[in-house]
Request: fold
Amino acid sequence: MEGGENRLLPAVALPSFQEGIGLVLSRWSALQLAVENEWGGRDSRRKVELLCSDILTWFTQNKEPLYIDDLEMILDEALLSLNTQVDDGSIEEVAERLIVMHEECLDGNFSSIEKLRQSPLPKVARSHVSQVMSDDEEEDEEEGGDVDVGNGRRDMMVDAIQPRPVNQPTPEATAEAEDGWVQVTSRRSRGTRN
Reply:
């Protein structure tokens, strides 16, 4: 629904549409890769559950016209919360599938949801997916890759995965404080004692 009047989803269609959202997201390789590897932390699965809820709310509670760009922004922010970045157009594809599925459900057509129910889960494709990594995580990564000394990151050799650099500690951030504590900047910010 590209900016038109926002029609309400019939109550009978709500459970099917909610299931459809979950089915679409369960087939999104970038999202599943982030969850499997817990790139968003131990609560990565919970973040996906919240994304499903946010999408359903966006479609059902939004009083304004629905624009696909807004849905793409929700999907992009969810990936960022999982420390994941894609450059393969999958955000647009997922948003479009959700919009089309919503339109079908408005008309009482659940065929695309039925097809998703019957189709097997695809293998997770790893191309064009990037994980945001901290320096600590890079050191723990055992799979091969070239070390790029210039920007302090390690390029992972999993198809086309290329982590983007995260906030690097500044000299001030790593300087030892008077009480002997050192502040270390990472994805999970925490202090360590020398």
Summary: The radius of gyration is 20 Å. The chain has two domains: 11-118, 132-193. The CA atoms of residues 66 and 150 lie 44 Å apart.
